[in-house]
Amino acid sequence: MTGRQSQRILDSLCSGVILLDSSLLITYLNPAAENILGISVRRARGKSLLRLVDDEPEMRDVLGRVIETGDHYANEIRLSPSEVHAEERIVDCRVSPIELGAAALLVEMTDVTRRSKISRENALLIQHGAGRQMIRQLAHEIKNPLGGIRGAAQLLEKQLSRAELSELTEYTDVVISETDRLAALVDTLLGPGGPPNKKPVNVHELLEYVVRIIEAEERKSVVFKRDYDPGLPLIRLDRDQMVQALLNLVRNAAMALEGHGTITLRSRALSNFTIGNIRHRVIASIEIQDDGPGIPFELQDSVFYPLVTSRPDGTGLGLPAAQELLSRHGGLIEFESRPGRTVFQVRIPLQQAEPS
């Protein structure tokens, strides 16, 4: 096989191929690697690969280990946002020792960000379905005896004599009020009933309405920034349900900031986006981003389950309720979180299937 034929094969690969010398400087990139790193082979030659990936710690450790031991390595690595790529990416990375001219390492990279996101979306949908079924069963089990307890307390109050009434009525009042409080909580768990009442809605108007509510509640130095796509069309939504979902998300962000920080509201139109097993030609993506401490790592796989919260005064109902309301519009809520940057992404299809 000639050198030109080998070059054509490398150029046609979907996986990025990078050759490094013993100092971890780039000697060659194929076109797929150019796309992943966001730099041409002409500009990349002689540059440090680590510098191009923001000195990613795991990448640095892996390259050094392969140089030292001669072993092969394969794993998924997260690449931070860059000037070329605005979002974090996940790459399947394989590193092998090689002796080819000045090259000492062969690095193969495949961008698996979308594949990982689809898997995560499916996990969120499964989580939402399991959580919804669990919470509704639990709510019904609680609500049935509550009616009996409240009725018994009212009958007891009627049976008490006037002398007893003045002394014991405070106890029956506590039983009735606490029963009513639990019944209200159960109604919250069950969520609003009925199909959505969809009408064309401007999502930016909904976001501004939610901001006014939060600003009235907080009265602290939370700064709101907007990054709206002015070309986003009206979307058929149930206004009340969508306000509640967005309010839950923005309120969570404000609470995470504890009164001090920045919340960024962003909207975009995304094409060819998959939600569950349905591929949509265009969706609206609404992002609520805060620069707070982030969601604790141990809670990130379960935040959409009911009653899961990191706040002592939290109910753990806001996120499951928001996910439920989005599911009624064929949508989904995803998130990314690390210290200093948490983003909840509301995905809404522009064309939704209407109930028959």
Attribute tags:
12 strands, five-stranded mixed β-sheet, Beta-Lactamase, 356 residues, 10 helices, Heat Shock Protein 90, five-stranded antiparallel β-sheet, elongated, alpha+beta
Describe the model.
The structure is a single chain. A five-stranded antiparallel beta sheet has the order 2-1-5-4-3, with helices on both faces. Strands 7-9-10-12-11 form a five-stranded mixed beta sheet. It folds into three domains: 3-111, Beta-Lactamase, CATH 3.30.450.20; 115-190; 199-349, Heat Shock Protein 90 (2-Layer Sandwich). Helix 6 (113-159) packs antiparallel against helix 7, helix 8 crosses helix 9 and helix 9 (239-257) runs antiparallel to helix 10 (318-327). With 356 residues, it is an alpha+beta fold. Strand 9 and strand 10 form a beta hairpin. It is elongated and about 100 Å long. Helices cover 45% and strands 27% of the residues. The chain starts with a helix and ends in a 7-residue tail after the last strand.
Question: What best-fitting shape do the alpha-carbon axes yield?
Answer: elongated
How many H/I helical runs?
A: 10
- Helicity level, as a percent range? 40-55%
> Helix- and strand-based class?
alpha+beta
Please give the domain count: 3
CATH H-level superfamily title of the largest domain: Histidine kinase-like ATPase, C-terminal domain
Order of helices and strands: HEEHHHHEEEHHEHEEHEEHEE
The main β sheet shows up as: 5 strands, antiparallel
The largest sheet has its strands arranged as 2-1-5-4-3
Q: What ranges have pLDDT less than 50 throughout 5 or more consecutive residues?
A: none
CATH class of the largest domain: Alpha Beta
**CATH architectural name of the largest domain:** 2-Layer Sandwich
Rg (C-alpha, Å)? 27 Å
* CATH fold field value of the largest domain: Heat Shock Protein 90
Average pLDDT taken over every residue:
79
Q: How much strand?
A: 25-35%
Query: How many β-strand stretches?
Result: 12
Cα-to-Cα separation, first versus last residue: 61 Å
